[in-house]
Amino acid sequence: VQLQASGGGLVQTGGSLRLSCVASGHTFTTYAMGWFRQTPGKEREFVAATTWVGTMRSYADSVKGRFTISRDNAKNTVYLQMNSLKAEDTAVYYCAASGGSGWSIRRADSTYEYDSWGQGTQVTVSS
Q: Using H for helix, E for strand and C for coil, what is the string for the chain?
């Protein structure tokens, strides 16, 4: 599966952005998708995840109530709606896909649960 993330940019504190991640290739094998973020010198951090079918969702505590992950199966696209953005949300955001049915919502925050990654899109929140 190939992933293409887009939608990043510069926004002021309190603003909103919507990230998109389009999957191509063997998308029928995709079981779950997630969003992670990373800042220089830090490890990649889990943001949100969703199964490709069904309604299971998972969010990092730091984004609960502000971010929403959703998907459009017909477009092979996963979205991350980010509202009430804070300076600490500034990062490169990556989308990821898991092709394994062994993926677990309880381990959704682990990078090891995903086997395909997009190229990242920069989100900068100015204070």
A: CEEEEECCEEEECCCCEEEEEEEECCHHHCCEEEEEEECCCCCCEEEEEEECCCCCEEECCCCCCCEEEEEEHHHCEEEEEECCCCHHHCEEEEEEEECCCCCCHHHCCCHHHCCEECCCEEEEEEC
* Residue 120: per-residue pLDDT: 95
Task: Extract the tokens encoding 2.
Answer: 């190939």
Each residue of 46-95: pLDDT tens digit?
A: 999 999 888 899 999 999 999 999 999 899 999 999 999 999 999 999 99
Question: Among positive and negative, which fits the CA dihedral 40, 79, 50, 82?
Answer: positive
What residues contact 125, with CB distance under 8 A and at least 6 apart? 11, 12, 13, 15, 85, 86, 87, 88, 89, 90
- The burial of 81, by beta-carbon neighbours within 10 Å (0-12 exposed, 13-18 middle, 19 or more buried), is given as middle
Tokens 């190939």, located at residue: 2
74 or 13, which is more confident: 13
